[in-house]
Amino acid sequence: MSTNLSTKIYNFLINTEEDYITAGSVIYQAIEDEPWIEKNELKNIIEQAILFANNNITRGSSRYMILLEILPEQFKYPIVRLQEKILDSVRVSSLRAIGAVKTNEEKPLNSNQIADNIRKLKGKLNNKTTPLNQKLFSSLCEAWSKNLQKVKNSELTWKDPLANQIITDDSGLVRQLSPTLRYSFMELARQMTPVSLPSIIQRKCNEFVSTFNENPAVELPRRIMHNGVWKESEHRLAEVTNRILDTLQDAWNNPAFSPEFAGFQSEGTYVNNIVLPTIRATLKDLPLEKSTFVSSSEKQSSASADRRGEGRSGRRPDIMFIMKHGVKKYELLYTECSRLSCTPQKKKDDEVKLWRECNDGLYWVHKSCTPDRDQFGIVGVQIAGSTIRLNVLTRDLADIHRYYHIRDVEIPVQQSNSTIVTKFVVEKSSTISSPIRENN
Fold first, then answer.
1. Where along the chain is composition biased (Low complexity) (predicted)?
2. How far is CA 62 from CA 9, 14, 49, 58, in A?
3. Which of 36, 59, 159, 240 is most buried, taking the most CB atoms under 10 A from its CB?
4. Which of 103, 183, 181 is nearest to 135 (CA)?
5. Neighbours of 102 (CB within 10 A)
6. Is beta strand 401-410 parallel, antiparallel or unpaired with respect to 292-295?
């Protein structure tokens, strides 16, 4: 039985808001981590977690009664049994089928398949009788006789490389080889690794470290204001444009985004190859130096967590642009992204999520700063399919939040005409360059 899984469910039962504790949500906690878990094992883990939880909850409390509702009425504490009808009505397989649980495409190997793989591996080793293979064959036969019972007890699983006909260099089979035979086993690895380091690489690394200049801290202008004109010089705008065009050139030369394959790419591929490089290219020359960074790992929003209250999890934007000022970090830009093939529902859900993230960000800033109400705004970038929308949330003089859809343009993922490219460049440049000036 998985101790980690039982602990996870126990913590869920103890700490989660009571409204969210249902038979389905408890089951989901398990199959989120172990999507192929067997039904009986799942029952045992859940009933153990409920037993431990009820032993640590005040008897008669609302949470205690909620947990009892998951159990059949004819069984009272401390004996617990999970109702069969729960797993019949909320089947693990049905949750997989509707996509509620992400699984690998292949189902894990069963004990018979593992045994068959071991037999095949033994046959391959015995077929080519080199001293190395002979030793590995004999060691495998010996290890298999010892592990056969483990397979029957499900202790040797599909997660073991050996069960998939793979011999790893850190496996017991290889570790017990003589030095000569181990040297022979590692021959292919040695051929993949150059023996010496070219002097040019070492010299370039030495030069980089010795000549590196840390960017100094930058004092921000005391006040900046929108006035409808570009702040950057034409030279600076040209540099930003060139960087954005470089990312497009990489995308146009990337077969993953050709008409044949583009529709099959994941959101991660889209973000890492086009969206994120373009955002970095746009934001690189901001006069903020080391006080800002781009977060692209779906990091929890501090602004959202703070607004929801202590102990609550915040939203997790796909990308954030974060600025550190003093001891606080402010989230100035949020991005929500889909795959290139975006459903209407995904577009609508991201639209709602984005303005809520911007609202959290604006609240967070005004909680500790006093930016001009009709000037400061939080930027929201939504990418739905091949369309990018630039949004800004600001607060007017009457303390009313205004959410503006600044511009919608096509992302030229594939080779396009200059008009489409120009609109895209202006859209990305506007994220930071549009209409601001210092107020002297």
1. 295-304
2. 18, 12, 18, 9
3. 240
4. 181
5. 8
6. unpaired
| Integer Cα distance of 411 and 257 in angstroms | 12
- CA-to-CA distance for 74 and 233, rounded, in angstroms? 78
Q: For residue 159, which of 219, 114, 195, 125 has the smallest C-alpha distance?
A: 114
**Residue length of the chain:** 440
Q: What is the mean pLDDT of residues 214-231?
A: 65
- Are 427 and 407 contacting, i.e. CB atoms less than 8 angstroms apart? yes
Strand-pairing partners, residue 334, are 320, 380
Angle between helices 418-433 and 234-252 (to 10 degrees): 130
DSSP structure class, residue 412? -
Smallest Cα–Cα separation from 26: which of 39, 16, 41, 37? 16
Are the beta carbons of 332 and 319 closer than 8 angstroms? no
Q: Report helix, strand or coil for 119.
A: helix
CA-CA distance, 375 to 224, in Å (whole number)?
8
The C-alpha angle 373, 378, 382, rounded to 5 degrees, equals 145
3-state secondary structure of 81: coil
**Which comes out higher in pLDDT, residue 197 or 158?**
197
pTM over 0.90: no
Instruction: Round the average pLDDT of the chain to a whole number and report it.
Output: 78
Range with lowest mean pLDDT among 180-184, 212-216, 290-294, 396-400: 212-216
Helix, strand, coil proportions of the chain in percent (round to 5)? 50, 10, 35
Q: How many CB atoms lie within 10 A of CB 26?
A: 24
pLDDT of amino acid 220: 58
**Domain range annotation of the chain:** 3-97, 111-192, 224-438
Q: Where are the alpha helices (DSSP H) in 231-311?
A: 234-252, 267-270, 276-283, 302-308
Is 10 within 8 Å of 52 (Cβ atoms)? yes
Give residue 216's pLDDT.
62
Type of residue found at 309: G
> What DSSP character marks residue 295?
E
